Amino acid sequence: MKITALPVSLAIVALISGCASSTVGFRGQIGTPGTAMSFQETHESDAAMLEQTAALEALMRDIVRSSTVKHAAIGAAMGCGIFVLATANASGCIRAATAGGVVGAVSGNLAGKREVARRMELVSPNELVRGIRSSNEKLDQITTNLPQLLSRQEKTVATLAQRRSLGELSQGEYSAQVASIRTRRAELAEALTLSSKQAKLAQNNLADAAAHGQTGLEWHIRAIEQLEREALSARSTISLL
Question: Contact, 191 vs 50, CB < 8 A?
Fold first, then answer.
């Protein structure tokens, strides 16, 4: 019994020792704040937020396109005037007028036909609504996640400073990692700024459409104004460290 018990006891001791050492290694790898794994998680969060702000900017560009009035087409329709409603050659008239060959010739008939052009749908309200809703959803994600991201970055910078003071990081390593976080913040701020500028441009486009006679755009203008305000508000929370 003693001969068999001794190896078993040694095996148990070895097993316990091995578990203890592997546990220490595991904690040193991902359990300690400021380790490579926590920095990787911060970087992945940054990348996800950059994707969200880039998606918002793309949606806002779509809104600008949807809100843009095609002035040449407006001029053509007004030049053709009542032909749009009364003749079989309406499409041909508009094509010719768009090319610049008819508008001047029929300018004397504009007075009684301007209302026809005003009834045209210069921008698509339905398309705008879809873009506004998608932009609102994306901006809601950003405003929900952004404070957590900024807090996480600030904790990471504090941890980096602590490791530098303990001699675990050189000044060069500290500066490089802080510069990386600062760069990602600048990219986020720029994307939100661009989105707000797109929103302002879309408002101007809709005002242009309203000036040309399209009605029913009040809600769209207010909704895009709100998008602009919220994008600027989110941008204002980002300091560049």
Answer: yes
Q: Could you say which DSSP state residue 240 is in?
A: -
Average the pLDDT over 213-239 and give the result. Answer: 96
How far, rounded to the nearest angstrom, does the alpha carbon of residue 7 sit from its chain's CA centroid? 64
Kindly report the number of other CB atoms within 10 A of residue 94's CB atom. 19
Give the whole-angstrom CA distance, residue 135 versus residue 226: 11
pLDDT at 225 over 80: yes
* d(C-alpha 49, C-alpha 235), whole Å: 13
Amino acid at 77: A
Q: What angle do CA 180, 50, 158 make, to 5 degrees?
A: 40
Instruction: Look up residue 50 and give its amino acid.
Output: L
Check pLDDT > 50 for residue 78: no
Residues 6+ apart with CB under 8 A from 112: 81, 82
Asked if residues 228 and 203 have their Cβ atoms less than 8 Å apart, the reply is yes
